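Researcher: Please predict.
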Amino acid sequence: MAIPLFTVDAFASRPFAGNPAAVCLLDRAREEAWLQHVAAEMNLSETAFLLPEGNGYRLRWLTPTIEVDLCGHATLASAHVLWETGRVKPEKAIHFQTRSGELTATRDGRWIELDFPALPPTPCEPPVELADALGVGPVYVGRTRFDYLWEVADEASLRGLNPDMPQLAGVPVRGVIVTCRSPNPDYDFFSRFFCPAAGVNEDPATGSSHCSLGPYWAAKLGKTELVGFQASRRSGVIRVRVRGDRVLLGGQAVTVLRAELNA
């Protein structure tokens, strides 16, 4: 039986921007090796696998090389597909069961909002190999549940980063969030996200990193509603609302491919 498969550009209002995710709508549970083969075949930063469960869906995220514990853009893409294909009514919230507990998606016009856990950073001393790999000094360094957060002085420092990826992959974390205050009044902060250890050198638009960026910049700027710009080649825009131990991530999404998987 053919399996519906979609490619969705998440955290984007137009095609070929934001972060592409594959969304695979399963009719039954599949073996781990099969899921990883499909994710490798899609060769995107994440492939989401959805299986109906209870009053919602079991959701798993795989990069081309590993399964991950939390992914924002592929969750956004999954919600977008479920509403767009009529599997869920537009006014209904979607509940996902994941490795990071229950995550909820709601819809407001073209915007989708995800209810995710807050992952604030704790100040720390960075390992020497991390500083060497990035090649730029920090204003602040913190450690989150998954990543290091590295604030740099300005936009030029952020955009000019060209990390040593093999060395960065040896740092024992999922990835490194690099950020700076925004010079553009439309946004509160800029960021980039590098995760070669997970099989993705630079992620174009990362929801889960904003679970840390939101609390960090909320405390620094004295506001709980922010807009982040991810300054990758494709770029992405993420709205962030900090609510205690939760972070509400807002973004748009566009379907660019509908297909069937025969495997």
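Model: The chain has two domains: 3-108+251-261, 122-244.
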